[in-house]
Amino acid sequence: MPTRVCLIHYHEIGLKGKNRITFERRLRDNLEVALAPFGVTHVGRISGHLLATFADESRVADAAGAAARVPGVARVSQALRCNQDEAEYCAAAITALGEVPSFETFKVHARRSSTNYPLHTLDMNRLVGSALCEAFPDKKVLMHGPDVTVVVLATQGDVYVYASSQRGVGGLPVGSAGKVVSLFSSGIDSPVATWMIGRRGAVCVPVHFSGRPQTSDASEWLVQDIVRALGPAGIIGRLYVCPIGDFQRQIALAVPNKLRVVMYRRLMFRVAEGVARIEGAKALVTGESLGQVASQTLENINAVNEVVSLPVFRPLIGSDKQEIIERAQQIGTFDLSTSEAPDCCTLFMPRKPETHARIAEVHEAEAQLDMDAMVAEALSVLEYVDFEGCPSYHRPHALRRVQSSLAPAGWHEDLMRPRG
Ligand code: ATP
Ligand code: MG
Hints:
Rossmann fold; alpha/beta
């Protein structure tokens, strides 16, 4: 009896030469975690694919959907695993083709991969092809551009058969590109930006700035829901929350109205860089898109960027809003991001924010503040929430115990607390 399994295809990993084994292992580890809720029993390599098997075959379809969301996965096929028995794999091909919702034309594509199976692929094509022609007399064989290709893959000991695949998100396995700290609002853009960098293999550590105690903590709960929605991608192991309402109030009282937003961002970037030092992250990520709102002009981006020394990645800088919205819908964050929650962005907002901040004015205004003290205090009230599902995320304390000089001023491990 054939069993249902997931065959997981990847391509970029194939390009990585000597790193290939490491990348494959990482993808396998990530898939084991992502597929655990579906009762996966094993994920292992077979001839250029990863194979996932399950205790309960009725979970395979949902598991395939989850696997498709894991970075590094190019395609997922729900396949039937058969013995090297002609009658068995021909029957499996009939089952697989019968499950394709609608088609007029098909072809068979047999492949062999380091197999002990004696039959040539031409013979396998002919054999399976004639079984399918008999079972589907009103469908046509088409060698170029058929609606469906039935793949028959003979490996050592087994034959896998599938007639359809779903597209995966592509990219690289999470954990293959180090760690980044992402400035994570409850808006549409930053969750998408975070996901994009995660898809390129980075472990993402989001930091959310809330307006507490000047606003409620609604945005803090909302970002947790957004992080959970991103869960299947396996890119986030910990979220930091930093309440900056009181600092915003100090800023609002001390600097010209129009410069408030730039100043809030200069505070956020510095705190985020502090978190990056705590976490050993090597870059910051934002959801900025050129010209989208007042704060995202070149002048303002420069006025904020200059306060940090880490590279700042802005994966959406050239994207249109509609493209970002479509991506947010695809990754499951859009509905959450459009629900109402006051966050620090709406707090003490000037009526006319500066769109082209002049750096000299910004420096002059900032001289009215003790920015270093604010950053140190903000880092001392950091809270965090841990999430399951990102096996490549390593908590920072071990690193800092060895290299306590990396910890930013004002920050103490004892002060950091899980969000209750
Ligand atoms: P988003 O949809 O991500 O909120 P936005 O279009 O609202 O972005 P801005 O408010 O100018 O744009 O924010 C630009 C970027 O600054 C955000 O994408 C995010 O990376 C960061 N940012 C803004 N507000 C916060 C916040 N409260 N906490 C963490 N990061 C923030
Ligand atoms: Mg926003």
